[in-house]
Specification:
Elements (H helix, E strand, L loop, with lengths): L6 H5 L10 H23 L16 H13 L2 H24 L4 H22 L8 H11 L7 H37 L10 H16 L2 H15 L3 H40 L8 H28 L4 H7 L5 H22 L3 H12 L1 H16 L12 H25 L4 H11 L11
Length: about 450
């Protein structure tokens, strides 16, 4: 009987510890901890998490914290993580192509992405985190497979095109909302004692009034109170509420956010090939990224937030007032600037202790990402300690610090004895269809 070679399968496996790129692990650690800064309002608060007007936080320490996070950091950590995921696609496939042949590299990669989908459903439907990003990475990572061999310049062109598509989509939505308000107000101005509204005018008036009423302070307070009751109630109420938040926005987000994720995956691939992510680019490159990115990004962020604050977070009035949506423009610049700043710190050697501290967290980024959903769910949801909606904004960041301390400590301890984090080990074992060695070999 003819036998088939299995050498390729034997050679395939996870990257050896000695082959890991240290700075990429540190960057993942920084990004995964930074993501919790953005996600904590979703874990701990209702709509007031992103709207300080609901509880009239103006002038308080809570408002200053909201402003600082939204002005400087909003969206940057997820963008950095998306860049690293894009870079990881190249590293994963290149590693397999050097050690295997034929379709095996693609087979391993697509199997890896499909299992990531399963983990995403676990995060949403078991851990009940409606802000999960893993499904986006699973689906769009498979799209990026087609672009892995492009040179850096073409990858940058791809990032630029996706950015323009995202910016266009963002402002197309704004334009539609402005048109809806304009047509609705025209219909409202009609003297119905003399003229009868058409079917279209009635629909336009109803849509405008619904949008306006939804942004009334009283309605926002009611939505907050309902969210607190459902999140701290029975498991059945909690499950229905949290999973519906995810599924209700899934189609719109995948359609709207696809360009967002692809932009930063393209950037991550390009930056890896240019040596930007590995610290090999000249220092002047990082200085330009930092100065231009943060300078222009923070300026745009200020002008984006100013009208929102002026109308006291009434989205109806905000939509009428602004001529152009700046969020994606600001976020992209700030994300590139933030990466430049981190890399300057890395190249300077001043904060070696910080990068060493973050490295194990980044090696266990997958475990730590889902760990945040688990820990925050236990603390905030009704099936746990039920602290949802009971803490002031500044107090929720004490929880962030506690989760950071837990994840940093346990990542360092775990990796003293094991090669991978527990979920990294499971993901790799499923990808290669065989159990991977878990314990470290004695020195």
């Amino acid at each position: 009987m003819k036998s088939f070679p299995v050498i390729a399968n034997i050679k395939a496996g996870p990257v050896a510890q000695t082959d890991r790129i240290v700075i990429l692990d540190s960057l993942r650690g920084i990004a995964i901890l930074g993501i919790l800064l953005m996600n904590i309002p979703g874990f701990s608060m209702a709509i007031n998490g992103h709207d300080p007007s609901v509880l009239n936080e103006f002038g308080s320490v809570n408002f200053k914290i909201w402003y600082g996070v939204d002005w400087a950091l909003a969206g940057t950590q997820r963008a950095l993580f998306s860049m690293l995921f894009g870079a990881g696609i190249i590293l994963f496939i290149n590693g397999k192509e050097k050690r295997t042949s034929g379709m095996l590299p693609a087979d391993y990669f697509f199997r890896r992405q499909l299992w990531l989908m399963v983990f995403s459903f676990f995060d949403v439907f078991i851990l009940l985190w409606f802000g999960d990003i893993l499904l986006d990475y699973a689906c769009l990572g498979m799209v990026m497979f087609a672009f892995r061999n492009l040179p850096a310049k073409r990858l940058l062109v791809g990032a630029g095109l996706c950015f323009l598509f995202m910016l266009t989509r963002e402002n197309a939505d704004l334009y539609r909302d402005k048109q809806m308000i304009y047509k609705g107000e025209l219909a409202a101005a009609v003297d119905t004692t003399k003229f009868k509204l058409s079917v279209f005018q009635k629909d336009e008036l109803q849509a405008m009034l619904a949008f306006k009423e939804r942004n009334n302070h009283e309605n926002k307070v009611r939505r907050m109170e309902r969210a607190i009751l459902k999140t701290t109630g029975s498991y059945e109420e909690l499950y229905a509420f949290r999973t519906n938040l995810y599924t209700d926005s899934l189609v719109r987000y995948l359609f709207f956010g696809v360009w967002d994720v692809l932009t930063f995956m393209f950037l991550g691939m390009a930056f890896l090939k240019m040596g930007v992510l590995t610290g090999q680019a000249p220092s002047k490159v990082y200085w330009w990224m930092c100065i231009v990115g943060l300078g222009a990004g923070l300026t745009l962020s200020f002008f984006q937030l100013r009208p929102m604050i002026d109308v006291r977070f009434n989205w109806f009035e905000y939509t009428k007032r602004i001529p152009f949506e700046l969020h994606e423009f600001s976020r992209t610049l700030r994300s590139v600037g933030f990466l430049g700043f981190i890399m300057l710190m890395y190249k300077s050697g001043w904060l070696k202790w910080l990068f060493a501290l973050m490295r194990p967290v980044g090696q266990m980024a997958f475990t730590n990402y889902l760990g945040q959903s688990l820990l925050c769910g236990i603390f905030f949801y009704g099936i746990g300690f039920g602290m949802f909606g009971k803490l002031q904004r500044y107090e929720t960041y004490y929880v962030v610090l506690a989760v950071w301390a837990i994840e940093i400590a346990w990542s360092h301890v775990w990796l003293r004895y094991f090669r991978f984090g527990p979920l990294e080990w499971l993901w790799r074992s499923l990808t290669y269809w065989r159990l991977q060695p878990m314990r470290k070999e004695p020195a």
